[in-house]
């Protein structure tokens, strides 16, 4: 159980972020400390070198004045030995490496004569070395330099001193860092934990809100913190998603209420009619007339139920479209020809303008349904007059226009007619047996084909429905 809790702990984003933060912090602190350490070492050695070079310069001056006098070097040595803080050890070699003079303590350095150093010095190079006598911890710094002197003699001067203070300063630096680093890491970890918790706190808030969100409280929204950062953006995005869900839940509830109402009304009417019919003995003609009316109502209800099933399939994405390349001009011609008879019965002149050959990618059954609904509406809402079906190409689209000279749709109603169960005039639709679902189906099919549908209409003068569909690209 403990290991499970442990595993869950390490899976937490705030813990992961903090660990990453500590790791990065530690790595940066180590790099910075390392850099400072080497800089400090370099600077201190540079100081020691400067000091040794001063002494070399002094020896050079002495030797250039007294090139063959060892006594002067002896008095220089006693003067140097009097220094307690930075003792100076030196020796002077002739150009072939023979001893000319060596201070008594130069041996302490344990300098092993190296012929390469001598040759380099003779070539005028200044050689700086760290020397560690065998078996001793104490390192020394030795600089070898070549001194051309007037006359025939040439010397190599080697001056050294210990690095005790450099080591001490460096060891001080190390111990200070060892004290400081844990404090820095502790503070860094606390800062990292605080930052991680602070930046992730909205996620906890979002999660707790989301846990309690049901269809009953979809009107609630998350409150942005006002920081206008990514978290606020996330909250706004979630709010927009909740708003969409809320709207679609409301639409669904409205749809169910409307559907129930639409079904209930004819059922109640039928129940009343049946009760009246059965209230007394009637002759066969009356029963026949009643049954014929019932049949008409049943057909109407059946149509409505079919439309409802179709729309609910659209909503639940169960109505899959079988997209194939098809000749839209032929499809339109067939549908318009079928409606010609119905139009003639109503004395309406249905004309099909010459249709250019157009191939689109679409579902044949759904497209038939789309244009059937539009032409059917045109006939339904045109008492007398004419209907024109036209098709043309416009850039990458095909434009189908169904124009009638019927009763038209008032301006203020035009944006509503695609809503479910919306009828401009219910009493008028009852006569035409409309239930207000035809244009919703039209709009869904057009959108599913990545197209658009528009209406232009004037009350009393007629309507034009325009459908835009993308042309099929081979
Ligand atoms: P309905 O089944 O009632 O026809 P629709 O969704 O097909 O439902 O149409 C919605 C409303 O739009 C109709 O009730 C009608 O008032 C109006 N309408 C649709 N097409 C036309 C048209 N061609 N001319 C006039 N009104 C129309």
CATH architecture type of the largest domain: 2-Layer Sandwich
Bound molecules: adenosine-5'-diphosphate
Category from helices, strands and their pairing: alpha+beta
The end-to-end distance, rounded to whole angstroms, is 62 Å
Largest sheet: 5 strands, antiparallel
- Please tell me how large the radius of gyration is: 51 Å
Output the CATH topology of the largest domain: Beta-Lactamase
Could you please describe the fold and organization of this structure?
It contains eleven helices and twelve strands. With 474 residues, the chain is an alpha+beta fold. The chain has three domains: 2-169, PAS domain (Beta-Lactamase), CATH 3.30.450; 230-315, Helix Hairpins (Orthogonal Bundle), CATH 1.10.287; 324-470, 2-Layer Sandwich (Heat Shock Protein 90). The strands form three sheets. It has a five-stranded antiparallel beta sheet. The protein has a five-stranded mixed beta sheet with strand order 7-9-10-12-11, with helices on one face. It has a two-stranded antiparallel ribbon with strand order 6-8. Helix 2 packs antiparallel against helix 5. The structure holds adenosine-5'-diphosphate. Residues 377-378, 381, 404, 406-409, 417, 422-424, 429, 434-439, 463 line the site of adenosine-5'-diphosphate (ADP). The site of adenosine-5'-diphosphate has 20 residues, from helix 9 and helix 11.
